[in-house]
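User: Before I run my own analysis I want an independent prediction to cross-check against. Here's the chain; please return only the structure tokens and, at the end, one sentence I can use as a sanity check.
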Amino acid sequence: MNPDRRQVLAGGIAALFAPVLGGGLAAAGAATGPRLLGARVGQRGGFFASAFDAAGEGAFDLPLPARGHGFAERPGRAEAVACARRPGTWLAVIDTAAGRILRHVGNAEGRRFNGHGVFSADGRLFYASESDHAAGRGVVGVYAADRGYTPVAAWDSGGLDPHDLRLLPDGRTLVVANGGIVTDPAAPRMKLNTGAMDSNLSYLDAATGRVLAQARPPAALASLGLRHLAIAADGAICFAAQYEGPAVDLVPLVGSHRPGAAELRFFSAPAAALRAMRHYCGSAAVDRSGRILGVSSPRGNRATFWDTADGRILASAEVADGCGIAPLAPGRFAVASGLGGVGAFDPATGTGSALAGALAAAGRWDNHLLALSG
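Assistant: Structure tokens:
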């Protein structure tokens, strides 16, 4: 498949996909699928955790204390956690059936939430990525979800600046993307060590927190920060990265790793596709088959889609400030824009359309979307 022929041309988000499909959302078959949960910025200010169906119609719209970031769904329960944007001071626990906030969980003294979390296989524990800036270490905070999210442990994340984390299919191992960047809570967007980063994937025992193994980019890519994760159907851990080196460098940003492998595997794409991503990936998700990886690049105003088995790029789509991405069905993704609106994409055909529902269309969406199971 030629990526240049798979470009979805964008104007504004509301008209983003209509010229491609012609027949609209129903013709694309995207009106069925899971509810999607994301963080949004209100048109008149304020911040919200908002859920909508596959047509874009609102399910619930809940105020948050500040900007939200990532979400995690609790296994076996109609419950999800919204994580504050780094450096965050709260988690919000949501009843996704009733559409209400159950509780807020505050940060531990001296630590800040880093935007992501994941549940244990049985749903009893919640693991949050955090930083202890004074101690200069990354932390996985452990909370007893079955006891009101009481904090029960604080483990070393295996590096600095832990961001995304996932539970492996074995249910016993966590993988943490340590970005390797030093920041200060007083100026959280300022990166203080881009010349001496140490990003890695760290594998932790989900029962004890013991670091089992690590994998790093090669020395030539020392300025590559591993940030976001998704797990393919074959168990490979897919990653999406951000590069802090010279703007003229042409570097891979997407790849995968298998536990036990000595090296990271980087996916391949034409130089033009890599340049268009502008050194920055904002979110990652696999489709319902687990075989296609979707990666957003909001600075490049595009989403890219990759074959997880052979590591090649399949397609790309232009999405203005597109960041949040989630699976709708096998071979179909939703991509949300920070300027407003959500689109549905089919990488195999290169087609897409805007979700017409009021909430999806009006929302100015933040970094991540979560496809709810119920």
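Sanity check: The two ends are 34 Å apart (CA to CA).
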